[in-house]
What we know:
8-stranded mixed β-sheet
Amino acid sequence: MIRPxxxxxxxxxxxxxxxxxxxxxFDLVGPPLSVKVTRNGKTLPIAEVPDLxxxxxxxxxxxxxxxxxARYLMIAVFLRxxxxxxxxxxxVRAETWDRHVQQEGINVTVPPDAQQALFFLAPxxxxxxxxxxxxxxxxxxxxxxxxxxxxxxxxxxxxxNAYLAAVTRISESDPDALKETTKLLGRSLNIKVxxxxxxxxxxxxxxxxxxxxxALVLDDGHTQSMVAELTSGASADLIGQLSATSLAGAGAYSxxxxxxxxxxxxxxxxxxxxxxxxxxxxxxQEDQLQLKLNSPPSFSNPKSVLTVGLPPVGSPQLPPMRAVxxxxxxxxxxxxxxxxxxxxxxxxxxxxxxDFVLHVEGKKGSAIDLPARAEAVRGxxxxxxxxxEVASMDPEVTGILRGYWGFEPVEGPAxxxxxxxxxxxxxxxxxxSALIVGRKDTLHLEADDAxxxxxVSFEQQGKAVKAAYKLVKPDEIEVQVSLEDTRxxxxxxxxxxxxxxxxxxxxxxxxxxxxxxEDFAIHAGDANGTLEGARLDEVSNVEIKGTAFAAAxxxxxxxEDALTLTSPAAAALFKPGEKTVAHVTLNDGRKIDLPFTVGxxxxxxxxxxxxxxxxxxxxxxxxxxxxxxxxxxxxNATLSFVxxxxxxWPRSQKIEVGTTDDSSxxxxxxxxxxxxxxxxxxxxxxxxxxxxxxxxxxxPLRFRPVDESGTAGDWQPLGxxxxxxxxxxxxxxxxxxxxxxxxxxxxxxxxxxxxSQSFAPSMPVAVGFAGSSLSVPRxxxxxxxxxxxxxxxxxxxxxxxVMPE
Length: 805
């Protein structure tokens, strides 16, 4: 690769240091200069002129103080490209100390084919004019580039100054608005705003937002197109390349830093023994150019020549104004209506755009022009709507921003406008029950037009409270309502439109917190389903597919509720896998829709037979007690029962057996031997309760089938599990008037003992009894009657040997 000779390491190092440290303050005030431009009979101050054209007449007037000691020569210069030296008559010389110049200024005309314009302020010496003219004609490209860069830097500096001034002012006057205002400034002026600054304490936010000022100004295509580069080749050297890199702090930012570095380098390169050229940034205010210098002028050799760029000569580059939201609708009667516009930062930082109005077509072809001005802190054009007369406007109109960019008329984006009128407000169905006391909620109110709402409040229990709101659609507003310290009941929303004296009222209802509906579980073929969630006591009724379901029992477990719902028609109402909706009505009238899916049919089996097998060979199993109730199942016996299903019995299906209080439960299946297949639909189940449940199990016993997925069928009764005491004998005294003694173990399992089947009289066994003998009535022969503690409803017969005491 061929490298130019100046690409040496020392030069790169020096250039890097210069660019990295280049942060020109330009805080020295230079001499002011008044400039006006006349085109086709119309005169504008220089602050409103973005470009010059051949034939424009420039009025230049140096505003030097009367006591000015050093004499300045003012030289107006026109250029015609980097490779085409300007003719000598394109240099206009004026002696600023001349009385006529001091009083009247000078007039110069932009010659044909001119592309750039600038002027010098040079200390007066012999031969000064000729020397300066020779320098410019010898190196026109350097001055073309310098003029371009000065214009670029001045325009970018205007954006930076506007941002810094606004941020500082807002920080001092309204710190709470700093975040939102800075966002608008960043959008309007195309300034990089560091959002992390707002995470810092309020006292540190301003310094954070204004640090690294050279990196704040983002690239702006419109600004650059106005001062398009007219040079190429050698002028775009290493310094210029570095100014567009992250090393120089630019990259995606404006070439502000690079422009200043380039112009300083260029002017350093063309100084002579007599003159050195000092760049001057300009701040235009009306017809005055205020010069800003970054180094003090010198009046000894080499004397300083102040170099000032004027607007480029060429076709006007109109600002690319864009509406931030093209679909948004605005109210024509809003005081200080703001129309957000982006894409042309110079609208906000300069006076180049001027005399803007919002042009609105009225009824029958009439037109209204409303004054408009660009305000960066508001993020758009602020329109004065005081002169709007609703009667002269259609309900919906279009307004177009119109004004001037310098001498050229310019038309901005169009905006949709509407006028205030009585609206029929409504709430979407989903929002009608959205207001819950004790929290903040959001309501959406709809009307044919909603843009003119400028104040929203709500009234409840005699109190009116402001409500935050925003326009989300042309026909919809979103309102934030806080009911943290109130009770359920009616609430009135008050919506005031701009230009209307009385607010419109919308009645809504505030509710207590609604139940949380988790799911409705029901299986095809079932008459009952379970509604799951929280606060289900608030449920009034449920309707599914036109069928009403009645509440049949509510169970609570912590914060979770389970409400059983039943309907006689439910068994034939659903199909497996069907997706449908439960329409739940609450006690206060609200309705909640709960989608659910119908489950597959639950497994079902029938009890065919059962038997109790007692091992008579075991002394612990044999008992003289004859159980009167066939449903009583001794804990120490083996229970066998036969079950049958309508369809083929799945081998993965199991049977759960347990007490009704869920204190004891076991599972029987083919794998653990609890179930034995008799045929394809029938199984034999064997259960040893004492082994499965332990010695303390008792009470009603039930069973249910459970399929492979864990879906369980209905519980069915299996019997009443009872524990049997061990009774050995009865010992009676000789005297018939005396009681006998029952001898055995676990006698606490007896509830009472009697010699009569009618249990009159009887002897109860006290709770807490732990003895091995018990006083009982004298048996009738060898017979006694007992009631077990686990089932005191049944009278059981006992035949025991009676021994003399």
